[in-house]
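Most newcomers find our protein records easier to grasp once they have seen one. A learned vocabulary of local backbone shapes supplies the integers on the structure line. An example says more than a description, so a record of this kind follows:
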Amino acid sequence: MAIIGNIIKGIIEAKDTLSGDENPVEEQQKVLKELLETAKDTQFGKHYRFEEILASDNIQEAFSKAIPYHDYHKISEEWWHKTIEGEPDVTWPGSPDFFALSSGTTGKKSKRIPVTNAMIDSIKSAGKKQIFALSNFDMPADFFEKEIMMLGSSTDLQERDGHKEGEISGISASNIPFWFKKYYKPGDEIAQIDDWDERVLTIAKQAKQWDIGALSGIPSWLELMLKKVIEYHKVDHIHEIWPNLQVYTSGGVAFDPYEKSFNALLGKPIQIIDTYLASEGFLAFQSRPETTSMKLVTDNGVYFEFVPFKPEYVNQDGSLTNEAPSLTLDQVEEDEDYVLIISTVTGAWRYIIGDTIAFTDVERAEIKITGRTKFFLNTVGSQLSVNKLNDAVKHLEETLDIKIPEYTLCAKRFDDGFYHSWYLGTDSEKSIAGEKAAQILDDFLKDANKNYKVARSKALEGVKVKFVPQQVFADWSGANKKKGGQVKMERVMGEEKFAEWEAFVSQEV
């Protein structure tokens, strides 16, 4: 009998019962007021007169009028460079002990994002909320006695000018509570291995020693880790190594493109739970099994605003125009794309995180990520979100009965005009003509998106498809950034980056 598991499950269920009704709109109003109160004496707070905003009749409206939008370049150039140089009280009281390194899905140069103690506490608090939400998933008691494999970036953080730097998953793992270390795998020693391939091989060698009940990590890298474990032990699926595996907490990117290839590595179905942990904070998680949408964490040091994703408000580089209006949580509508804006306990103010979201349930503050501001494919008016592209790839998988966990594409100019040029990553042994796949994608997108259909009758000539091994995508990420952690494949590329990609592929295959 799982005595400890029953105790933990009972605590979680009791906590969920006692939590009461939530009001996300009121929680957000309170969070904004607390952020402004805390930061009013910082350089940023004095410059933008937080005291006056706090004294206004409508704090949310006064806040949005007083402070401009900031992307990373703007806030770093104007403010965070002082923080990086060691100056205290710039956009948040004191000086951060950590900086999250993030290149997102574009560029080789890392961004340095302050991670304050308040943000570490916020991430821990959101993690606890997610654990308590497990009461909604009716997990068996013995699940709460199993170990959790968290595959993130290295926890061997780099010392720099009195602070530590690393990816947010590495920073988070290096700050896990002492009571959690009993359950945390691969453990501190292995997690500190900087070389991703060496770390994964070490995990594979020790895998049979652990009783893993849950997995956590970005799908692409976690899938490669599972393949290595299966290959090393010469078994058919991961449940032969970890028979009690019951949950996978996904994050970083949409899970849909990986669903078919991921499930092929399992011996039985498991519960998939989506999360939204970015370098800037823990923003949302799936709180109930009836939906794959994620609930915004509205009471935990992050204030959200939403800008309608419309051509007149978004520049080609993904930045926002000065005229772009922002909406609060009580003003949004379901099934509309919004650019996500956050203000946080890291001292990020009206910060463009780069993601677009849509609400699936406004009352519950539940969202789905629909893409990146830079990655909407709109070169020839097709207005395709990553969400729509994922749907097209999923349809192609089902139609051809193959697995395509990775892809990228570009609206590329050929001699006879623009084409959407796709590269699809698959390890399928089937021989499939690119022309057939192109026709299936084209037909699906015509039916799914009216703007795409119109573009196809005008400037967009058609679709071209090339299949490449899945490993090529991992090698590309390794060559351009670093394997593992928060590194994600760019789904849509500009022509210059796409030319680099095609040159890389030609050398690999």
About this structure: Confidence is low (pLDDT under 50) at residues 1-14. The radius of gyration is 23 Å. The longest strand covers residues 351-361.
